[in-house]
Model the fold of this input.
Amino acid sequence: MAFVWKWTVRFLGAVLALSLLFVLYGGFVYRDHQLRDTEFSQGVSYLNIGPAEIAYRANGLDREGKTPVILLHAMFFHMGMWDDWAEELARNRPVYRFDVPGHGLSSLAEDGDYSLQSTVNALQAFMDHQGIDRAILVGASMGGATMFNFAAEYPQRVEKLVLVNSGGLEGHDKADSSGLPDGAYWVLRYLPDWSLNRFVDWLTADNQASDAFKSGFIQTFRNLDIRRGIIGRMQDFKSPDTEAVLAEIQVPTLVMWGEKNPQLPVAQAQRFKTLIEHDGNPVMLRIYQGAGHLLPAEGMDSPIQDLLAFIDQEGGE
Done:
């Protein structure tokens, strides 16, 4: 019996020592990095909207007389996911994109509110500060849920709506992540780079995000405030009665979806179309073969061409 206890204690001691080494090694290798005042923040402007300081980029501001486009990113990511599309869009009209509180270069929300309504309020405040009375709204995933809720609440401020693999439909109205512990962001710190790369590969299905995109994603994940913001948003993000909200949308809408979206099944695209095109409200649906959840970062040409055609067609300007 003494022999068993002896080796049990040795085994547990070895496990404890290895765990301590892992924590120390991971704490150094995956240590937190600041993002502001680095190459990552070049060309970024900041705007204080009360609960948070919003980081944003504005391009094509010399294209006067054109309705501006506002791009809103997906959860876990930041406004850099729109780099390629923003460049194309800004050739013809003003383009704005910003990081929601707790993501990218924006600060955490001082009031700790990361609910969907708080993000809708942030969009309203951003438009007010920029003097934008009416805009074309383009949102991906979480950004899509924000945009269609805004379009339903403030129809007079939306000319057209574009939903790119939008969240907010299946399950989100009943989802409850409030039990997620606040300290979960410390666990996220120890996710190795290869696992974050695999996460992006999984989201992009048959396509491949660029090395620069993956590097930027990993770089943001190595920031403590962003991990805290991600957990806060997962705890607070819950859609209202989505079907009722979609029925209130009164503007031309484009629904864009990856056929192999691993996170939000392609069947949801048709449901969005059906729920929005009430009473003849015009809705276009585009599904992209082999594409995943991150269309703006997947290097495909057809989605941006479809977006440009939809935005420039008559019926809004």
User: Anything to note?
Assistant: The longest helix spans residues 2-29. Residues 17-26, 172-178 have pLDDT under 50 and may be disordered. Residues 42-312 form a domain with the Rossmann fold fold (CATH 3.40.50.1820). The longest strand covers residues 53-59.
